[in-house]
Structures are given as structure tokens and as C-alpha cells.
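Bit of a strange request maybe. I'm writing a small parser for C-alpha cell strings and I need a real example to test against, not something I typed by hand. Could someone generate the C-alpha cells for this chain?
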Amino acid sequence: MNLKRLFWTPAAFVAALGVLLAAPGMAEAQQGVVTGQVIDGRTGAPIASAQVSVVGTQVGTLTDREGNFRIANAPAGAQQLRATFIGYRTSTQDVQVIAGQTTTVNFQLSESAVALDELIVTGTAGRQERRAQAASVATLDVAALTETAPITSVANILQGRTTGVSITTSSGTAGSTQRIRLRGSASLNLSNEPIVIIDGIRADSRTSQIYGVGGQAGSRLNDINPDDIESIEIVKGPAAATLYGADASAGVIQIRTKRGRAGTTFTQNVTYEYGVSQNLWDVPANFGACSAAQVTEEARTLCFGREAGTVISDAPLQRYDVFRDGVSHQLSWSGRGGGENYGYYLSFSADEQQGVLPDNEYNRYTGRVNFDFTPREDLRLDASIGLGRVDADFPQNDNNIYGYLGGALLGRPQNVGTASDGWFGANRQTEAISRIENRNMTIRTTPVITINYTPLPWFTHRFNAGLDMTRSEAKSLFPLNANGWYGTAVLNSGQIGQARQNRDEITLDYLGSIRRQVGESWNYDLAFGGQLVSVRSDLTNATGQGLTTNTAQAVNAAATTTGGQSYGESREGGIFTQLDLAFRDRLYFQLGGRLDKNSAFGEEVGTFFNPKVGLSYVVSEEDFYPVGLENLVSTLRLRSVWGSTGRAPGSTASLTTFSPAAFAITSNQVGSGVLPSNPGNAELAPERGVEAEFGFDAGLFNERVGLEVTYYNKRSEDLIISRPIAPSLGFGSNPVVNIGELVNRGWEVGINARVAEGRSFTWDARLNLSTNENEVTDLGDVEPFGTTLRVLEGFPANGWWTHEVVEFDFANNRTIVTDTTVFWGNSNPGFEGNFSSTLNLFNNFRIYAQVDWASDYVLYNNTDQFRERQFGTGERSVLRDELEPEDRLRRFGPFVRENGSGVGASAVNAAYYQPGDHVRFREFSVSYTLPRDVAERFRAAGATVTLGGRNLALWTDYEGEDPEVLGAQTSFSRNDFLTLPQPRRWSARVNLTF
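Reply from user aminoacidic:
Good idea to test on real output. This should exercise your parser:
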């Protein structure tokens, strides 16, 4: 078989699908109507958005707000009807559907602490019931979360909701990106961000910032409107092996958007939210001592008339009243409904946010149309399109001397009253900073079409085709000024940059499934399929320097211009199969494999194979299960899985590359030439992640408590690492090779409980605990590398290293440190957890709270280090003689090795490598559902008012402000360097249903 021809010929893929669709389907069956209601069996309350379907067909619907459903196209004859909803046991009833008549079936669902019959909609091949899955796949009911929790982004949804998911924000700037880690970091040089799938197609989730603004950056994941999401599935381990193969070792996040409801009336939701973000940062003041000359200068207002040596302080951010309350508004509308054989969902939203600093705005406008059509019993068509526009204005900030924090925290109080007025640099005040512009505008379109075809009751096909298309424009402006605002002649003369970036990501995906029964006890599901993903990106930019005026903001209006372009294209494809065997619907075996090919592989590398094998066993349903355990452990499932995934190298990593270089032909003529850049590696293959997972799920105390326990061991092999080569070879950089190994291992424990319940209240709680141990186990023939962040066998990847203080030599006023650096701490948490609780009162009050925490990691407080040791503006630096001798010598030295040689202060950072352990009161909300007669005054069927807060309190011993910020978007480090902490946010939300 010519695999390359298979992978790179989408036309053949579509042609094969056409043959299947052209095959004769089942005869058009007579149909009847099935109606009914789904309610909570304990309280009698209706259950909205429950899934009701005819078993073995594509026919089904969702219940409305009152729990009612209507299936207009149910096949006539003896059928089984199934009702499912997250947190409840699945219920199945036999029904006789009579052609042309209406049959009524009602369901009473009982709560379940372990939802084994819940369907995994998008995260797996083969059988979809959770009971059949050998690996843990977490499911979040986003539609329910967004009704009460103060959520503005996908990152807010993921944070603190389940085990093994770590979310860290880069800064407190509105619209800034986040770092997502599923079970730790699995690579040293490649991206550790999970793949994001939206409605079955690969989605753009990059950190995206064309012109840098310090450590801040935007994120394409923030483009998504949370109110459009129905559910999210998080695939953390080897469950991703079959479907996603060579690029899934960092995990997969599956996003499923909301759908229509066939056979239901049209309903609308209108939501308005008002929010306020507040800065909580008590910004440290700058300190300095007045010199003899400064006390005589009248312009230096803080020093004038004082004695020489007087210590003064100043906080420019407070003096200029820079911080503001960031106001946000969100208005959204959605409608859903359907006819006899179709359903639709429509939405529009406008979300405008201000940050707590000037020049920070993040505005998101989205629209979505989802439509599903069932023309006949054996065929279902789903089509959707998401549209969005994002306008992001980021201030210069975070590790940036041109920003508010850099300008203020590095200023000198002695200069208050002069041109700089206490800020860093000449005339670098709020006027100068606020005049800098950095704007990004992105338009995003995501059309998707899905075809589900069932030519036989036991044979199904699903085909997905979709495109994620982004078009971005970026502008960067340092305005022309005569005040010397920006410190360099080039920037002060005016500089403008313009960039245009296009990115297209195309996905073609096919999944076939055969389900058959063998005898009375066995049945099998055979899944097979393939995927093609093509990514194309193109960035063109131009820069102009020397503006004649600030009104003509065009590159060609500048005195000198330069330009550039970068282009990249990659393709990847895979074919897979998975066999699921089930014995008496309680013992399940999984065996799967996937074969991948990627254009980023070296030319001598063929295909990449990923196997998977797993076992799931519902022990509690066996006849031999002890009767005496039923009240204590009513449900018990054991599971185990082993599988392999991968991470593809960068699109040009395997190629031999050259850099352009000019050379002189004559004294006045220049030719173009090249210099060797990278020798490449024709044998470069993807990194391989091999993971084993063991665990169990248990329902305790008559399903009042659910317990999920998982142990995982993920070994990343064939790590892509730069191998040094001899400089005499002439290449400007070293090639990357597959060598080395990295291990992540840990435990995940999830506990959900119905703490108390009564006639008019319920109290639910959820506790998640996760550990992660990261260790580099092999570097091959590559020497350990890195300085403060170091990679060394036997230690965490990119852990913090420093010379350790051995003793304080008070007699000679010096600090003795170790001859070599020692490991000081991990840069990622070794232990994380969260606790959430929901209290429902009188069927119309809901109180929700969430607390999360992290420990066993170290954060580099580079803000204090830089201000104290580099600039000398920190309080401890100026008042060092008043410090305890040990504290003074620990921070400022001088430092001497035990062997007597000196060492620079930058290599002795124990005082600034600080524990990041913290507890944060993350979320709180109170929701009130108005009585129906009150809602009807607004001509609404229902109305809910929600008051919420986010980032409400923080408890930590970290000496900086926020132990969660990154300071930059990096794979490992947490470097708090002039970084804006996360603000507190309050919101009020009104939701009306019509």
C-alpha cells in the first residue's frame, strides 16, 4: 500500500465516502411520535437538556426547560428509549411506537455518584459509554457551569474543575494568554500545550502576539465564547492514542458547541453581564538616598532642602493614579429549536473588557449557527459555522522598560520634579507610555460539516470536514516626539510596524464503526478511520522609521522602511483501528492502533505507530459481588490502560537551512549569498509518549459519594534536543536529534458528594487532588545544559538551580557559597487541588464557591531581585545596613565559593527563589431564579439573576504579589518579572428565557 498516496490525497478520501453514501440504505421506515418528560426521581423537579434517544439509531432530542421532549421521527415498532444526563443513572424503557400516532413515555432519573452510562461524545472511538472506557476522560457540563459561575473564557472553565489540569495565567492583563498543562510537561523543546478540537476539527489555540509587548500575549483559545459551549471533554492520557496519535502526548481538549432540539418549540435566551475588575496590588515604592548635589537642586522636590544621605521613597503608579477599575459589558443572545426532523442553534455575543491599566482593552464579538437535519432514519447531517472578531489592545508591560510597571518600579525618587519625574528614563511618564500603541485585530471563521450515515443498524459512518481560518492585523506605534520619551533616537523619531497574518487549518476526519453481538454474552465494536490535517500560515510585515507626523500612520510615510515575510505549511495524516470487546456489558477489552505520517518528520523517517490496550471491569454488577458491600460500595469499576502517543517536531526542524548574506562583488555592487544555518536531521522523528494508567471508580454510601482514583506513569521518549556540533562545520546553529527521556508520574483523586439534602435544599461538594513528579531520566550523549534553569538527569526538567549559601563570614563581610550550583526547586507544582461546593435552596437559590491551591514549586521573584541588586531602587537595597546581617549577606554578598574564587550575584538566587505555595478563593456566586409570575412581567418564561466574583482572596508566603503568574509564555519557568498580578473581578448577570 502506498501510504503517502493515501495520506496526501483528500480526493480519494472523499470519493470513498461517496461510495458509502451512495450505497442503498435501509428502506424508509414508517414513523411515529414519542413525547414525555424527564424528572428527578427524588425531588420531582424537571431535568432540562437531558438526552433522550432511540437506542441503535441517530434519532433523539434534548429536553426543554420543563423537562419535556418530543421525538417526531421515531421508527415504528418495538423500540428502546434511553434518557441520559450528567450526574444521573441512565434509564432505558421499552416502547411500542405506532406509525402516525403519539406515544407518551416518562422518565424518572436517579442520581448517581459514578456516571458509568454517561456517553463520551467526542473523546473516543468505538463504544461511547463511560463504563467501556479503559482510560479516564473528564467531562465538564459547561452549559450548566456558565449559568452560575463567573466565567469569561475557556481557561476559566478548565481551571479547578477536574484533576490533572493545571492552568496558569501569564499576567493580569485583560485578554492575556494562559498556560495549560495536562499531567505535567512532557517535552523539553516542543509545545506542551494540549491539542484543542472543536466539533471534531483541529482548532487554532496558539499563543498569538505578532508585535511583542513584554511577557504578555494573546491566545486564540480566548476567541471562543463560553456561552456557545455545551460540554468539554479532557483526554489526559493514552485514551488519545487511537484518535490523535503522533501529536497528542500533551493531551487533548474536546469542545462541543450547543445544538438544536428536534421536535421542540423555539426558545431564546438573552443575557447581559456587567463586570468590574479591581487592582489589588499594593505596588512597592522606590527608595533612594539624596546626594549632596541633589539636596541643593530645587527641581528635585523630594530631596531639596534635606540633608545629604536622607532616604526618600516614591510610588509613581499611585502618584499618577494609573490604575483604574476595568469595566466590562457582555450582551448575548441565543435561540434554539427544531422541527420534525431538524434542529438549530443560533447565537450572537458582544463582550467588551477593560483592563486595570490604561490602553488595555479586549473586545470579542462572536456569532454561531448550528444546524442538524435528519432527512431519513439512516442519515443525519450536521453543519455549523462560527464567526468571530477579536480586538486586543495590550499596554507595554511585564518585563518591559517601556511599560507602566517597568517605568514605575525602576524609577528613582531623587528625580521627582525633573523631566523623568521619578520614572525610569528621560520623560518616561504616563503620557509617553500611553501614546505607544499595540493593536491586534483577528477575524476567525470555523465552518464544519458532519455526516452520520447508518446503512445498517450495526454499521455506522461519520465524516467530518472543517476549516479554522484566521486573518489577523497588527499595528505597533512609537510616536514621533521631541521629548526623548523612549531613550533611543530611532524610537523617538517615530516607528510604525504593520503586519498581516493568515492561518488556515483544514481537517478531514472519517470514523466507521461496526457493532455486532456474538452469542448471548459477547459483543464487539470495531472502529476504523483516518484523519488528514493541513496547516498553512503566512506572515508579512513592514516597519517604517522616521515619521514626519503622527497622523500619517503608514509605513510608506516613514523615512526608511524594511519588510519581511515568513511562510510555513505542514501536513499530517493517520489511519487507525480499535476493537472493543464486551462480555455481559460489564467486562470490556480495548485494543487499538494508529499509523501516522507527518511532513515535519525527517525524509528518512517512515510512518509512526501508536498502539493502545485497555481493560475496564464493572465488578459491582457481577453476581458474586458481596451483598453486604452494596450499601457501602454500590458501584465499583476497575480500569487499566497502556498506550503510546507522540509530539511532532516543528515544521522545519528536520530541514537543512541557510541564511541570506550579502557579499561585495565590486566596491559599489553587492550580491546576495547564503550562509549555513542549520544542518538539519533527515532521521528526525516525533517524540513518543508511552503512558500507563491504573485506577478505579466507586459509588459509596448508596451513591451519595463518588470516588475516582487514578495513577499514571507517562514516559516521554526520543526527546528532541539540540546536539552541539563542531563550530568548524560552519553552521550557525546546532541540529536537533531524538535523544533523552522525561518521566511524569502522579496520582489523581476526585471525590464528589451529596453532603446533605432535604425537602427544600441540597448541598453538593467536589474535591480534586493531583500530584505530579517530573524527572529527566536520560539525556543520551548530550551534556546537562542551562544555568539558572537547568536540565540534568535525575532532576525535574528546567528546575531552579543556584549556588547555595554554606556560611556567613561576618568577620570578612562576605558570603561563602557552594563551588557548584545545586537544585533548589521545581518550577511547576508537585501538588494541586481544588474544592467546590454548591448549595441549592428552595429550588430558586443557588450558592456556589470554589477554592484551589498549589504547592511544591518555586517561583523566581525577579522583580525584587532586579530592583534590589540591579537598579538599587528596592527598600532592602537602600536600607541594607538596617537588615539583619544574615539577610543582608544572603541577598547582596559579596559571594565567594568555598574554593576561594568569586562568583557573581546573578548566580546566587536562593533569596529570590521563593516557594509559590498558595491558596486562592477562586470563585463565588449567588443565583436567584425569579418566580414565574415575576418573569412573565418581562414576558419571559424564566429569569435568573447572578452575582459573582473571581480571584477574591489569596493566602501565600510568596514575597511577590501573585504566585500564579508566569511573566512570560514559556514551557517551564515561572519568572515574576515586573508582571501585573491578576485583578479581582465582580460581575452581575441577568438571564432571560423566552
